[in-house]
Amino acid sequence: MTEQQSEQNSSDKSQGESSPQADNDTAKTAGRGFLIITAAKVWFLITSAVIQLGLPILISPEQFGIFKIVTEWVGWINMVMITGTLHAVSKLISEQPERARVVVNMAVKMQCMLAVPIAGLYALGSPLIAHHWYDAAETLAPLMQISALIILFYGFYAIFVGYFNGLKQFARQASLDFTFSTVKLIGIIGLVLLGFGVWGAVVGFVAAAGIIFFVAAVWVTIRMRRRTDQTEPEDKQEAKTAFSRLLSYLVLIMLYTFALNGLMRVDLLILPGVASNIPEHLAGMTPSLFELMSNTFAGVYGASLNIARIPYQGVIAVTFVIFPLISEATFQEDRERTREYIRSTLRYCIIMIGVAAMLLAFNADGIVGGLYAPVYGHAAGALAMLSVAIIFFALLYVTSTMIIGSGHPKVAFGIMAISLAISGVLNFLFVNRVHDETMQRFDGVASPDEIQGDATAVVGGAAETAAAHADFAEPWLMEAPTYMEAAALATMIAMGTGFVLSVVWLWRKFNAPPPGMTLMRMGLVAVVLFGMDLLIELPVEMVDEYGNIVYLAMVVGKMTVMGVVSLVVLAAGREFTRTDWERLQAVISRKSEE
Q1: What's the predicted TM-score (pTM) here?
Q2: What's the Rg (C-alpha) of the chain?
Q3: C-alpha angle 155/157/159, rounded to 5°?
Q4: Do residues 133 and 281 both lie within one domain?
Q5: Which residue, of 228, 253, 279, is where some domain finishes?
Q6: Angle at CA 210, nearest 5°, toward 166 and 97?
Q7: Do both 508 and 578 map to the same domain?
Q8: Residue range(s) defining the domain that contains residue 378
Q9: DSSP, res 333
Q10: Which residue, 146, 215, 147, is CA-closest to 177?
């Protein structure tokens, strides 16, 4: 094995030295691939924004909370399935394109062993998960069972996306992403507008996943049949070895992705679960009241999460490019090039994510107030914290991708697992403390479980019960900011810890310290933006005077000015150099095609 690697290493180096044009074409391909994938991700971001920002306007906070719980749970499993499968299939096909058909067939068999039983187990276990939120209305469980079909469709759809990615057919890969994003938008919003509420939203999601699975399967099958350069394994042992390698790589990436997506979602899953707990001294309160408040908290907090996660989408395309670059450099033992990739990538991501997240943090009140009903204003403080947390998470995602690309996936999984554990423990402790303190304020409010006596007594008792519930729910809702800020703080600490651990590991392993001067300049940008926020005040009360659309336009205008000022501050501080412009021109230049 060592001799083969050595020979391959020497071959790669000699090719690089003798064919600079090949290296240039590779860079161009990576750059174009980045732009194409980025375009698909931008469209995904736009459609997701319409869905996630529009649904709270079209349905009640309680229904949106149910939708968020369903999609966060199924999304956690989906991302594990699709990321692990896509990377595993892409890796094997990119290594041996002539075996693409074999890899796809193996992956289909593999998903029959994984995706089918996982989707089935999720459907069977959904009632137990729903019980965690006191699903008294029995709405959550059936929706979660229906969403299990998404897991099944995603598992096989990822195979076909991995096929195009492995063959570097980025345009075809992007077209699938474009199609899926569009169909999902039409399905979810369309059924909601037709009056089907949260049921329509979930069913629309399932239908979109089924449609894109069918389209991708037909497309890839036709293309594989047209290819004449495909070869089969020479013997059964070779086929068995290839399948084992595919499965082992997939499982390792799935573990990492499980921790990654758990870190993204654990706060939203713990918050409503804790809020739905009925303390012993309030046992007279009906479970449906706690279910209503729990779902409302999930909807309001989920809306702030949707906004905070927007900058994170900007780094996804970066990881598609940096992964093979880091992998190649470390395989060739080129520490200097590896170090430069790490520093440059961190620098660009810190600027891109940092500026976007700070604009959200300093305008949290205005964004929430302009987009949503007043009840969502309870999440403004949490949004500010989550905007900072997402800086850490996005950078952690990039650094962990670089760690995996350097050949250390176990390290990346370990760091992500530690971060997930910290987030889970802190969210549970912080939110429980707030819940206990809040519930203690309502001693004596609970009404009897049963009302007995004549008709007059029953009517009177019912009136007292309704009054007690109203007296309970209104002040509890006023405590919503405290609940949400506790969850956001726990999440921010966990994500920040993970990012620091990953940076320290890269620093020690490759002697690649974080870009100190960039961090200092970003600190200066934060100070300038803080001052601008104090000078340009847009209180939420202005919505009543100007209306949501005009007020939101004012907020966007303020954010635009702040964004321009941020770039000016960075440019004045000489953050951008001639090398940066040359790299940008190299990506978009068409000279290599002439």
Answers
A1: 0.72
A2: 26
A3: 80
A4: no
A5: 228
A6: 15
A7: yes
A8: 261-594
A9: T
A10: 215
- Measure CA of the first residue to CA of the last residue in the chain; give whole Å: 41
Same domain, yes or no, for 327 and 426? yes
Mark whether 181 and 328 lie in a shared domain: no
CA dist 328 and 322 (Å) reads: 10
SS3 letters across 554-571 = HHHHHHHHHHHHHHHHHH
Q: Are 74 and 152 in contact (CB under 8 A)?
A: no
Contact 303, 289 (CB under 8 A): no
Same domain, 475 and 568: yes
Tell me the pLDDT tens digit for each residue of 29-78: 555 555 676 677 778 878 887 887 788 888 888 888 888 888 888 888 88
Binning the chain into helix, strand and coil, the percentages to the nearest 5 are 85, 0, 15
Q: Which of 178, 236, 167, 242 is nearest to 212 (CA)?
A: 178
Q: Residue 564 is which amino acid?
A: V
460 and 327 together in one domain: yes
Torsion angle in degrees (nearest 10) through CA of 341, 159, 79, 194: 130
What are the pLDDT digits (tens) for 415-461?
Answer: 999 999 999 999 999 999 999 888 887 765 544 444 444 444 433 44
